[in-house]
Specification:
The chain is α/β, with parallel strands linked by helices. It contains 20 helices and 14 strands. It has 3 domains: 106 residues, Nucleotidyltransferase, domain 5 (2-Layer Sandwich), CATH 3.30.420.40; 162 residues, Exopolyphosphatase. Domain 2 (Nucleotidyltransferase, domain 5), CATH 3.30.420; 138 residues, Hypothetical protein af1432 (Orthogonal Bundle). Strand 12 and strand 13 form a beta hairpin.
Length: 501
């Protein structure tokens, strides 16, 4: 990545939306601007787990303001991620479709474990480099993430459905603070978090860090009350709980350092924080400067270098786990990428979209047989299911879904992907994958360089021409290619296979 490049990360959290803009400078990212708005979408889910119109509008209004600040940014310079509220919302597609239009950039809903990993990346990059084993805690609006890590590597990640907004709504609905309500909220949080005891025992870490929202708010309150700055202790938490109980109601709380956007959710946040510290035997929690948005920024830098993209390693691990034939995956990938290159215009100055297509297509090729361990006849369906439900490090949920659709479409009728095929990029990637599988059907390196491919973007037509000698040498391949042409007759794109003397 060029020094001086501007990058922007957007975190669509359950309590707040945040925009971080930084400039890449010799391996580090220097902050240029930071915007935060309390959108509180987390309390905008109704009983059916649908976002209310009011909650969606609050989010859209915020994204419109962020969009103005991002005017002039390229797609490759911006990444927006959404967390627990949009993971839960049944009508998230309605919000996301309009939100992407307003923002002008894609919005990715990431899995809880992926959120945890990115949080750790943000924290680790802003900590001194040493050999300590770290526990990182992030209490959000509707979820809490826990991570074990060493240096820049997260070794254990988890996400739990317990957060400051959700707990405040459930256990402090009227804002009343009593010893009994705090006890009930803390015990309930421990019940959700109890399974963390197995994966995050005290013996596995030497120092505990807290990131973002609740931790930062509590630490600031305690520091202004005379407790050590940048730390949260059990003594400090006990003092804070006693103060809140004496106040009796959130409306009567007048704590120095408690910001207005945190006041309504302080009860839920404190009860979860105390439950965690008791459960995991944390005597002191140190406040970390990094957060999810910083992890997103550093991930953008790393993705520019193909050797450090964590998604490549995730694909390899999944392929090994399901005993996928690596030679066939590599063979299919090489041919598919060659065909995709022949379908693309070469006059574009910005090669970034083409690069993204190549990477997605190569992943699909490596994993096209991932479902074969379950069923030989329907492996494409099982492969799509695996990818839709897998937690793959580095991938967002929409990325995995799109990858699953390519795996699903590798064989069979195309009607099942009728909507997706309206998108030119997807149609080209799928056609390249299907043609490659035909050419590699014998599980041997094909003579594909003898074939000529022509793409007419205006007519949405792709023609593959082979010498008659090639067709005679590979009659089965020629037969399958003719059948493939029939399969595309009712699709938005068409495919023709021709021979010439």
């Amino acid at each position: 990545m060029k020094h001086g490049t501007l990058l922007a990360a957007i975190d669509l959290g359950s309590n707040s939306f945040r925009l971080e803009i930084g400039r890449y400078d010799h391996g580090q990212i220097q902050r240029i601007a930071y915007l935060k708005e309390t959108v509180r979408q987390g309390n905008g889910l109704d009983e059916d787990r649908n976002l209310t119109p009011e909650a969606m509008q609050r989010g859209w209004d915020c994204l419109a303001r962020f969009a103005e600040r991002l005017s002039g940014f390229k797609k490759s310079q911006v990444r927006a991620v959404a967390t627990q509220t949009l993971r839960e919302a049944k009508n998230r597609e309605e919000f996301l479709q309009r939100g992407c239009e307003i923002l002008g950039f894609p919005i990715e809903v990431i899995a809880g474990t992926e959120e945890a990993r990115l949080i750790y990346q943000g924290v680790a990059h802003l900590l001194p480099s040493d050999d300590e084993r770290r526990l990182v805690v992030d209490i959000g609006g509707r979820s809490t993430e826990l991570v074990l890590g060493h240096s820049l590597d997260a070794t254990e990640t988890a996400s739990f459905r317990v957060g400051s907004v959700a707990w405040s709504m459930k256990y402090f609905p009227t804002g009343e603070f009593t010893e009994q309500t705090f006890y009930r909220a803390e015990i309930a949080a421990q019940a959700v978090l109890e399974e963390a005891l197995t994966a995050y025992p005290r013996s596995q870490w030497t120092k505990a860090y807290g990131a973002s929202g609740t931790v930062g708010a509590v630490a600031e309150i305690l520091a202004l009350a005379g407790f050590p700055e940048g730390e949260i202790s059990m003594d400090g938490l006990d003092w804070l709980v006693k103060y809140l109980v004496r106040a009796g109601n959130v409306s009567k709380v007048q704590l120095e350092g408690l910001k207005e956007d945190r006041q309504a959710v302080i009860g839920g946040g404190v009860s979860i924080l105390r439950a965690l510290m008791v459960l995991l035997k944390i005597t002191t929690l140190y406040v970390a400067q990094g957060a999810l948005r910083h992890g997103v920024l550093y991930e953008m830098v790393e993705r520019e270098d193909h050797n450090t993209d964590t998604r490549d390693l995730s694909v390899q691990r999944l392929a090994v786990k399901f005993s996928v034939d690596p030679q066939q995956g590599q063979r299919v990938g090489q041919v598919a990428l060659h065909l995709l290159q022949g379908m693309s215009l070469r006059s574009k100055e910005d090669d970034t979209p083409m690069d993204r297509m190549r990477r997605k297509l190569n992943w699909a090729a490596q994993l096209h047989e991932v479902g074969a361990a379950i069923s030989h006849s329907d492996y494409h369906k099982h492969g799509a299911y695996i990818l839709d439900n897998a937690d793959l490090v580095g991938f967002s949920m929409p990325e995995l879904h799109r990858l699953g659709l390519l795996v699903l479409g590798q064989r069979g009728k195309l009607k099942k992907l009728e909507v997706e095929l309206e998108e030119n990029e997807f149609a080209k990637m799928l056609m390249a994958l299907r043609l490659s599988l035909i050419l590699c059907h014998a599980r041997q390196d094909p003579d594909h360089l003898a074939l000529a491919l022509h793409c007419d973007d205006h007519k949405q037509r792709i023609t593959l021409t082979a010498p008659e000698t090639w067709a005679n040498d590979y009659p089965q391949s020629a037969h399958l290619l003719k059948q493939e042409a029939v399969s595309w007759q009712k699709a938005s794109w068409s495919f023709d296979f021709m021979t010439k003397p």
